[in-house]
Amino acid sequence: MRDRGIKERQMRRQTINRIIFYITGLLILAMGLTLNTKAGLGVSPIISVSYSISQITGMNFGNTTMGLYCVFVVVELILHFIRDRRSEKTEGAVLEHANRMNRKLVFLMDVLQIPLSMIFTRFLNLFAKVIPDFSEGEADGKQYAVRFAVLILALILTGIGAAMSLNMRIIPNPGDGIVQAIADCIHKSVGFTKNCFDVFNVTVTICISLLCRGHLIGIGIGTVCAMIG
Q1: 71, 181 contact by CB (below 8 A)
Q2: Within 13 Å of residue 194, how many CA atoms lie on the same side as its CB?
Q3: Phi then psi dihedrals of residue 173, to 5 deg
Q4: Helix, strand or coil, per DSSP, at residue 161
Q5: Cβ pair 77, 170 in contact under 8 A
Q6: Residue 97: its pLDDT value, please?
Q7: pLDDT of residue 187
Q8: Ordered DSSP codes for 65-109
Q9: What does the pLDDT read at residue 89?
Q10: Burial of 113 (C-beta count, 10 Å sphere; 0-12/13-18/19+)
Q11: How much is the CA Rg of the chain, to the nearest whole Å?
Q12: Among 5, 31, 101, 196, which one is most buried in terms of CB atoms within 10 A?
């Protein structure tokens, strides 16, 4: 009984630690994405669409990102439904119950991404208000050095935040969730799918920018660095 109690306490402690690391990772990720927009050298491909829309329409960046994330979740649900329909034709009776339970869990994880997105994008708005815009002011060598330093910091924080939140395996960020869903559907690696999805987002952003403003918005050296980094 004593050993069982010790194991239960250890499991609770591990669960609490996972949640703390997960929340911390999301905060660091939100900080990195916000700094990415403040450097003025081009934003990360995954948020380039929502950033360009916010700049064109004057809408809040966090709100446009929330809208984009909701679209991602809807696409995930559709892709998972398609994948499940395919698997139903090939799975045997023995695996039917297990696969049905797995589908329910996947559906729950997809739906929970919406409230997660609401919280996450509120932090984007908070950080956007607190962090100054480093692209403003006279464009000289010193300012560009500061902007590149901010960009590097943004990439580091984005990488750390994404790794911390993903490794805890709780609720995926919609930007990562949709990549995983596409990869599962087309039977390709996540890395390859991520690269293709980044190119798709950049292409959409370029089209929106040129059609609405006649010049690029949110696309620059920072976008390329984000894709590589």
Answers
A1: no
A2: 13
A3: -65, 140
A4: helix
A5: no
A6: 53
A7: 87
A8: HHHHHHHHHHHHHHHHHHHHHHHHTT--HHHHHHHHHHHHHHHHH
A9: 59
A10: buried
A11: 20
A12: 31
Take residue 43 and report the two structure tokens written for it.
Answer: 């934003």
Predicted TM-score (pTM) of the model is: 0.85
Tokens of 24: 């911390």
Q: For the chain of 229 residues, list the mean pLDDT of each consecutive stretch of 10.
A: 73 90 94 93 93 94 95 94 72 54 82 94 93 78 88 93 84 89 88 92 96 93 85
- Alpha-carbon span 90 to 21, nearest angstrom: 39
Residue 42 DSSP label: -
| Model pLDDT, residue 10 | 85
Closest CA to 32 of 158, 121, 118, 135: 158
Helices (H), the chain: 2-38, 45-57, 61-88, 93-130, 141-167, 174-186, 190-212, 221-228
Quote the CA–CA distance of 114 and 123 in Å, as a whole number. 15
Distance CA 11, CA 211 (A): 54
Residue type, 20: I
Q: How far apart are CA 223 and CA 229, in angstroms?
A: 10
Q: Are 143 and 137 in contact (CB under 8 A)?
A: yes
